[in-house]
Specification:
Blueprint (H helix, E strand, L loop, with lengths): L2 E6 H14 L4 E2 L10 H10 L4 E4 L2 H7 L6 E7 L13 E5 L2 H5 L5 E6 L13 H7 L4 E8 L10 H14 L6 E5 L3 H10 L4 E6 L1 H5 L5 E13 L4 E2 L4 E2 L4 E7 L16 H15 L5 E6 L2 E5 L7 E7 L10 E4 L10 E5 L4
Parallel strand pairs: 1-18, 2-9, 3-4, 4-5, 5-6, 6-7, 7-8, 8-9
Antiparallel strand pairs: 1-10, 10-13, 10-17, 11-12, 13-16, 14-15, 14-17, 15-16
Helix pairs in contact: 6-7
Length: 347
């Protein structure tokens, strides 16, 4: 009885191949929880795609991945002199987002991140004059720019990259390789046409692993079902049941990521109104769960437990039974499953 991620393996891998075809020199990203699949699984998939480099988030992930993947490993988090030393092989490439960071990586393979409109981290245009001498003591693998997902001001992502290419060229810095994020295949083609001597490498995670939403599905086993009448008390806090129906205990709790939600940027009045409605319901202990039964998302009967959740299923729905599986709408990057099941879907 488990929280399971089902994967339509052929469809999932076909999508991977299509992304690799659209983005020559792609660098797959494998960080965090491995986009819900885990690092072991993604390392296996990357190796089958005949790719020479992957990107991870941290040095700790690089240390774990070095025994799973034999190619180069790019650490995306920039180096800081105060960080804990982690023993890593020479095939690990470090990122630097400051002149001081480059000086701290003497002898290392380095990618230098430039400051984009993300305003997260990166060297500034004013740093470029100091960067030349710092690069003499490292092995420069290229520069990198991490771009925003949305451009609400109407600016052009390609023009932002071109602006930095022009600055780097004016500073007489080498432009043999540029790592980019959040560009389309068409935008990359424009850059390659304008800068034929530069190798553009797209770092891609979400689009590669999660781009085909129909290739994966979460399902939770029903572990127990208890009939309940309106007003009956139940649970840790002995709340009253809102109506007649069933309490369904399903696999999946806070240790799996159920009930955890990253903050969302709300756009427009409709999404804001929905957010206010959810918040209002939460004040009276009404929280909609991600579990879908009989065609509808069901309410949590009480907050999710560590490994299970309890749902209230009203008597106008189909009665759940022990052993049934309930579909679950979960965010891959915050979910840890009990098992992954590959299945072949007849078409």
């Amino acid at each position: 009885m488990a929280l399971t991620l089902y994967v339509d393996t052929d469809r999932w891998r076909a999508h991977q191949r299509s992304v690799v075809a659209d983005f020559p020199d792609l660098v797959p990203v494998c960080k965090g929880n491995g986009y819900g699949f885990g690092h072991d699984r993604l390392a296996e998939e990357i190796s089958s795609l005949d790719i020479d480099t992957l990107a991870v988030g941290t040095t700790y992930e690089a240390a774990a991945m070095k025994d799973r993947f034999s190619g180069d490993i790019l650490v995306l988090t920039p180096y800081r002199r105060t960080e804990e030393p982690v023993p890593l092989p020479d095939r690990v490439i470090r990122s630097a987002s400051s002149v001081d960071g480059v000086y701290g990586l003497v002898g290392s393979r380095v990618v230098v991140e430039v400051m984009s409109s993300m305003r997260r981290h990166g060297v500034l245009p004013s740093d470029l004059g100091k960067l030349q001498s710092a690069l003499e003591d490292v092995r420069l693998e290229g520069f990198a720019i991490h771009l925003p997902l949305d451009r609400t001001d109407g600016t052009d992502a390609v023009e932002e990259v071109i602006g930095w290419m022009d600055r780097l060229r004016a500073a007489r810095l080498p432009l043999h390789t540029m790592f980019v994020s959040h560009l389309t295949a068409e935008q990359l083609a424009r850059l390659r046409q304008q800068f034929p001597q530069t190798r553009f490498r797209a770092r891609i995670g979400t689009r590669l692993w999660l781009g085909d939403h129909q290739a994966t599905e979460y399902r939770a086993s029903v572990l127990d079902v208890t009939p309940i009448g309106k007003g009956d008390r139940f649970g840790y806090r002995q709340q009253k049941a809102p109506g007649t129906g069933w309490l369904a205990v399903v696999a999946g709790g806070t240790s799996h990521g159920v009930g955890l939600e990253a903050p969302k940027a709300l756009h427009g009045m409709t999404s804001r109104a929905k957010g206010m409605a959810r918040a209002s319901l939460a004040t009276v202990n009404r929280n909609l769960s991600p579990f879908v039964w009989d065609g509808k998302q069901r309410w949590f009967a009480e907050p999710p437990h560590m490994q299970v959740s309890i749902l209230f299923v009203p008597d106008d729905a189909k009665a759940p039974k022990v052993g049934d599986e309930v579909r679950v709408i979960l965010r891959h990057t915050t979910t840890t499953v009990d098992r992954i099941v590959d299945r072949i879907v007849d078409r």
